[in-house]
Design brief:
Helix content is about 35%, strand content about 20%. By secondary structure, it is of the alpha/beta class. Strands 5-4-8-9-3-10 form a six-stranded parallel beta sheet, with helices on both faces. The chain has a five-stranded parallel beta sheet with strand order 11-22-21-12-20. β8, α8 and β9 form a beta-alpha-beta unit.
Length: about 475
């Protein structure tokens, strides 16, 4: 350790007076984020002063909506802030606020760039706003030669406003790259759900920004009446507050169900039956494209790996045109996921596609990622796995028409409130929990998770020029 400190690989510092050792790259990155955010947040927005009352009346008429009082307050705050965070769970109106804000600025000719951490999240953002959103990697223009980005402090992004969605997924290194490439003059809007799982990579960037008091924050807590009718949204907010969801059989139609399964083998059998037959028949959904199984972990009888094998066998049994590599068999129609960033192919960790062709003569498999065919040599298939089932961690930033979540006591190491909350909030039309009520109770009760040691919050508080956080709670 002394050698690593002497050579600069490690840095000795403290977090809240607790002595810590940092990897030097992460230590530098957190300091850089704090410095850049303080600089971006300083000063007036790059657009002329806008009369908020007139602008809000205009956007209500244009969109044919009536905004709630709290929504109007949030938009007014966004119009006068150089940097702002909007956070809240499902059904609280984040999208309405963001859309209204963007419509107002678009009418003023403000140049905007929108981004999200994953392809699916960027696609959802594009659909919600009507403005093209890119993945952060695409926005920053990955340089395949070195894995870095062509956009940086010397080649900054060309925008007046940068909007980052699903910010809970953004780790320290990616946020450093993004803030470094954001010009000083630009405004920054960060949108995300602080109660979801933190990023797969290091840090807890969104939580640290919100907790630092360095940037104004719009906190949305109350659910709109229409959204509150959804049992999915009721369950999600209940879980987030530490309350057990209602697992009783609903008296009529519902979008949230619990199916009892006491043993992993029983759970697997019921999940396959739900995905193959019951859900597609009842809800008129495609079993492969519309139904997603999300697991707390990869291993075990109710884990993603075992479920992928069973679901693949049930939903897309391989015909003569197939390839066997790295422990899996693939055939046309299979749902698959990329598990590493590939800058040459422009396919990134977590991207889901469908096998469109297997060509033994060429030794090549073609996968369709959102309409873009990508060829893989058979020897490259170690970065592909079946995606009928995936971990909840891998599902962040995505939404699916129907979600099935196994919740078993054998998943005990991963049964955490934010994990279950993240899984439930992935479902748009239907969520089915399969397993034991005791396992659900363990997850709901366990709010601890693993502590992440980060100094970003402290550095942000020190670097901030804004006097305090501004919070807008209540209705969306």
């Amino acid at each position: 350790m002394d050698l690593e400190l002497a050579e600069g690989a490690l840095v000795a510092d403290s977090v809240s007076e607790t002595p810590c050792l940092f990897l030097s790259g992460l230590h530098r990155a957190e300091r850089a984020i704090a410095e850049r955010l303080a600089r971006i947040a300083d000063g007036a927005p790059p657009w002329p002063v806008i009369d908020a009352a007139k602008a809000i009346n205009w956007v209500e008429g244009r969109a044919g909506i009536t905004l709630a009082g709290r929504q109007k307050e949030a938009i007014e705050l966004a119009l006068k802030s150089k940097a702002l965070v909007i956070t809240g769970g499902p059904g609280v109106g984040k999208t309405t606020i963001v859309n209204s804000f963007l419509k107002i600025l678009a009418a003023k000719g403000v140049k905007m760039l929108l981004c999200a951490p994953t392809g699916r999240a960027a696609k959802r953002m594009t659909e919600a706003t009507g403005i093209e959103a890119k993945t952060i990697h695409r926005l920053l223009e990955v340089d395949p030669a070195n894995g870095g980005f062509k956009r940086n402090e010397n080649n900054a992004l060309d925008c007046d406003l940068l909007v980052v969605d699903e910010a809970s997924m953004v780790d320290v290194m990616l946020m450093q790259a993004l803030t470094t490439a954001t010009p000083d003059r630009a405004a920054l809007l960060v949108v995300g759900d602080i109660d979801q799982l933190p990023s797969v990579g290091p840090g807890q960037v969104l939580a640290d920004i919100i907790g630092s008091g360095a940037i104004p924050v719009v906190r949305l807590t109350e659910v709109f009446r229409q959204a509150a009718e959804s049992k999915i949204i009721q369950a999600a907010h209940g879980i987030n507050a530490g309350r057990m969801p209602d697992l009783a059989a609903p008296s009529g139609d519902s979008d949230f169900y619990f199916v009892q399964a006491d043993e992993p083998e029983d759970a697997v059998r019921k999940i396959v039956e739900l995905a193959k037959t019951r859900i597609p028949r009842r809800f008129n959904l495609d079993p492969i494209r519309d139904v997603q199984v999300l697991c707390p972990m990869n291993r075990g009888g109710g884990g993603a790996r075992a479920l992928n094998a069973e679901l693949q066998k049930a939903l897309n049994p391989a015909g003569p045109k197939k390839v066997e590599r790295f422990g899996w068999t693939y055939a046309p129609g299979d749902k698959v996921m990329q598990i590493e960033n590939d800058y040459d192919k422009e396919v990134y960790n977590g991207d889901v596609g469908y096998v469109s062709d297997v060509d033994p003569d060429l030794g090549e498999m073609t996968i369709d990622f959102d309409g873009k065919p990508v060829a893989y040599a058979f020897g490259e298939l170690d970065v592909i796995v079946p995606a009928y089932a995936a971990t909840i961690h891998k599902s962040q930033g995505s939404e699916y028409p129907a979600v099935i979540i196994p919740v078993m006591t054998q998943h005990f190491p991963m049964l955490q409130r934010n994990l279950l909350y993240t899984g439930v909030t992935r479902g748009k039309r239907l969520v089915v929990l399969v397993g034991q009520k005791r396992a659900v109770a363990i997850a709901v009760k366990n709010a601890s998770g693993r502590r992440r040691w980060s100094k970003l919050r402290e550095w942000l508080a020190l670097a901030a020029t804004a006097p305090a956080v501004v919070s807008v709670a209540g209705n969306a």
